[in-house]
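Obj.: predict assembly geometry.
Materials: sequence records (below).
Method: joint structure prediction, all chains together.
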Amino acid sequence: VKGIKFPGSDRVQIMSFPDPEPGYREVVVRMKASAICRSDLSMYHGSSVLDRESTASVIPGHEACGVVEKIGKGISKEEMEPGVRVAIYLAVGCGHCSYCRQGWSILCKTWKCLGFDFDGGHAELIKVPVENCLRLPDEMSFVAGALSTDKFGGLYHCHKTLGVSARNTVAIFGLGPMGQMGALAAKALGAKVIAVDVLDSRLKLARDIGADYLINSSTQNATKEILGMTDSEGADVAIDCSGNPKAENNALECVKRQGKVAFIGESKSTTINPSDQMIRKMLTVIGNWYFPTWEYREIGNFIVGKDLHLERFVTNIYSLDEAQAAYERFDKYETGLVVFSA
Ligand SMILES: [Zn+2]
Ligand SMILES: [Zn+2]
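Observations (raw structure tokens):
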């Protein structure tokens, strides 16, 4: 089968591999759509975002979906069978710690990541444990399925944790893929959405999604604007999807007393002022990425039920043969979301 690898220095190698054979309680999925993610780029450039050993030996891609083709031993027909359309959960844990037992294998001490630690989605066939297969609703396309996990699912879980609803005004900082999904989910939940970004092109996308207010933080003071929109009270919820220190500080400052803040954008260090920004205001601040396996049914039903059409964010669909061009263009921000299809 065909698949890609990153030998380093912004190169993509299209390679041929032996067909994977499913082991005990493993399945082989025929890839139908596999999304590119910014977190792939460190491997593309030649280093890994997970601070792990060189991953050049692994097929990348952690946002894949497809059709189950082969079933290993130890799996009943009721649990999984060939022909089932599935999205793939990206983490494999030890299987027996308290987190794994609750479907939270991303929190397992020894978790391994699809496309980083073991062969991922940018290949014609993908081998994963059966527990990692998330059934796609019939109405959901494969492209939407690829975007429904890491990109949409994480933001859905964030909103659910913070209790985002029609009662809330939600400020979203950074309208890249995560922020777009966050705005989409918040609107679908009925919230008022304030979109904050430094790029007008991204704010325009936010408007298309239905954002109620747009703030360009390169020319406007985001906190001041948000206080102005909320009778000087502040937003109920702020979600930083940028990882930018200024935005992270704005997120803490623009929410009301007892407000809620989520940090989603990857960020190594930031200077904040806990006394004024968090303690005195009695904020709830969470970090969030991804979701537990059992929640996918709910996520899928939400996407279909609210008619969200995640495909609309995809600007380019490439074959695996075009992977070099796909990564080059994605890296230079010449595209929106990019998906491989096979
Ligand atoms: Zn991702
Ligand atoms: Zn575990």
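Conclusions so far: Residues 93-94, 97, 99-100, 108 surround zinc ion (ligand 2) (CB under 6 Å).
To do: check interface contacts against the pulldown list.
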